[in-house]
Amino acid sequence: MKEIxxxxxxxxxxxxxxVDIIQRGLRMxxxxxxxxxxxxxxxxxxxxxxxxxxxxxxxxDSSYIQVIPFSGLLVxxxxxxxxxxxxxxxxxxxxxxxxxxxxxxxxxxxxxIETVFLKAMPRYMNISSSIVREIIKMNKEGSRGDLSLFxxxxxxxxxxxxxxx
Length: 165
Ligand code: ADP
Fold this sequence. Notes:
There is one protein chain. Helix content is 40%, strand content 19%. The chain has six helices and five strands; from the N terminus they run βαβαβαβαβαα. Helix 2 packs across helix 6. The chain is globular, with a radius of gyration of 16 Å. It binds adenosine-5'-diphosphate (ADP).
């Protein structure tokens, strides 16, 4: 039987840290379903379609990655897709508290579910989508932050498009 994991997140935008978690996850799983949250309640910088597209482009060459949108409870998606493993990344101790809480609540709602955590590689542990978003905003006002340090080419390409975030 194929081992499949769901890697859920907002990916606003996808960063080198996310890409690394997915690539390392593929050493353990035959397939990873990247579930991009619609983020109801938050106002993402990149609309869902763009976030999906950037993740898809980042993994355009891999048939082991499936990218899907999702809204609502992750456990519902897991039941619908019949997948029992959630993949998450942990950067610092501040991630741990939140991630453990999510993992416990998901397991309480769906006892079959296991969450597997991968520790961020040291070179990526300080990369966060929220700081990337701050740099994007500052670049729009004339700063020249080198975003390629933090995000894959797919995000750089999206930022080149006129009228885009
Ligand atoms: P969410 O809104 O669900 O936290 P994110 O897109 O911010 O969505 O993150 C998705 C997952 O990726 C989370 O488990 C998060 O801890 C992890 N993650 C985010 N940035 C990194 C990084 N630089 N290295 C490793 N894991 C990361």
